[in-house]
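Step 1: inspect the first sequence and its tokens.
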Amino acid sequence: MNGAFIPTRSDAKFHAPVPQNRGFADRVRIWWREIDKWLLGMVLLLMALGTVAVAAASPAAGRQYQVSEFVFFQKHVIFQLLGIGVMLFVSLASRDNARRMGIVMAVAMLGLMLLVPVIGVEVNGARRWINLGMRLQPSEFLKPGFAVLLAWMLSWRLRDPSLPVVAYATLTMALVAALLMLQPNLGATILFGGVWFVLVLLSGVSLQRLGALIAVGVSGLTAAYFLYDNARYRIDSFFGGGVAFDQVDLAQRTILNGGWTGTGLWLGRRKMSLPEAHTDYIFSVIGEEFGLLMCALILLLYVAIVARVLVRLVDEDNLFALLAGAGLVSLIGGQAFINMAVNLQLFPSKGMTLPLVSYGGSSTLAVCFTLGLLLAITRRNPFLEREKPGLKNLFEKKEGRA
């Protein structure tokens, strides 16, 4: 895309106009016509499977935390219902309002991230949460805001190609990485770095600069290993044995214990020894009680969600929408990949949940907010879709006139 023509015209003609005096019922009808129903359906299916998975893992988590067996399942249902409400509400927004919500969320969460080292709550040696009546993890809500903020920054090149937008995006990434490593949270830092890399790559960076950025990322990971005890401990334990290795080893043995079809709901035994069975290692619980076939189905659902969004973005002629959509779906796909890789003993333990499936308060609401933005940004008017030339055709037309 480097050096290619990027269209500067508005894409308003390709979306249904929404007069200001329309009622809520009219807005819902327009929303239903424009929303990606396949994407919404796959998301709801994953959430339903996640609810069953948390029900299976809740007894193990209840024993670990010495509470009622199904207290986590009951809370999860509440968080899932709240999350669906958040997702649907955000998806009603126009593309411009979705952009504004993402930017406001990014700025607000960066402000809270600055406060985490000062007034944050420490859990299991990490200080990542703030108590605001409920325990809130700002980095979870920063994820969608970060993707939208970077997409907005990188789209400035449309107005002024001389702006150093890649430098702005890189400085933002450096600030976020510094705040995350103060907690410390290496897993989230890697995820944010992956989203930054995808967006910078799509924005049209030169190969020379891309190589330099990759070198900076590798240097940052190397520095994290030598400067942060938590990162060094997890990596050393993974390769040389230790508590962290024992956890991922137990997770792998648990996931294989159910064979292809599983032991059956609430009949798994290895899960009772698995720490954080309802969050970090929910994928292993699914493998034991519902089998490897169910694990494969969940993996395919994540792949299908990512593929669906990318196909939806192929004909997108708005650079911000292209970057924001790619960044948001990279968050979901990247986090799912890391969580499943840890459960399969392919990565060191990261303390990262499986989006839409794991138990969580902040994480569930944040993932649903992410998907709400994604649904809003990928909305299309089906009656005008055929008229839309897309980026590829517009590039060809511009090059033909040159």
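Step 2: inspect the second sequence and its tokens, then contrast the two.
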Amino acid sequence: MSTDYQQARLSLGARLRELRAEVTGRDLASRLGWPQSKVSKLETGRQTATGADLEAWAAATGHPEAVEDLKARLQGLESRSRSWRRQLRAGHRPVQDALTVEYRRSSYLRAWEGAMVVGILQTADYARHTFTRYAELHQSIPDVEDAVRARMRRQEILYEPGRSFDIVMWEAALHARVCPPPVMAAQLDRLAGVVGLDTVNLGIVPFNAPLAIPPANGFWIYDERLVIAEDWHAELWLDDADTVATYGRVWSTLRDAAVHGAAAHRLIARARAYLDHA
């Protein structure tokens, strides 16, 4: 979780504590019918309030006029951390559509992914298995086919002049069995075909490459204006200059460990051969 995000959550908690100044935490919990631990977690930034929580808090502390300010603070939090629980209420398709908007707004896109093939290079079958697994994990609406179609349509951007995709993946992504072997084989063939595409620079970090930093969570950098990083609980949309610059340094450090061109093609071919003989 970003430091800026946590600082904003702490600030919201401090504001809630101010509103509760004339009421004890125990009394407020009793009025709201909450465990006292929830009051404590909200005030100390260990739990994020919902809009309904904020309305109830303002009313119970005698400050209904504070609701607008509290919700504005919450909206600021949610613009940075977009929980999967909330995003996936309507399924995966709307999430894909929102990402397509950011792709189209950008001309230079950089990505790091250590665990799976990036969405912009996925085959339909690979994407189908990925969406299915995530829908099961998050118990969300299983709109898998709509999500696959949205992702495939976005791939048209790869062939538009004026855009550049600089993608770095760990070799582990070539071996992770997130789908059946025949689907993975077709996916590796797709990656091999991408090497040499004039809008895509695909780098693979070999297993035995010296690493200056650990290969952590995946992320995209959209020009110099936005980073979208994925975690298990949420996507982080980060647009302050210092954070974007930090992710840029991370990406450059990982790229320095990658191989490209024919060397990347050999790693893909080796994974394909291993799959054939597994």
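Step 3: confirm your contrast with the notes below.
The chain has a mean pLDDT of 92. The first strand starts at residue 81 and ends at 83.
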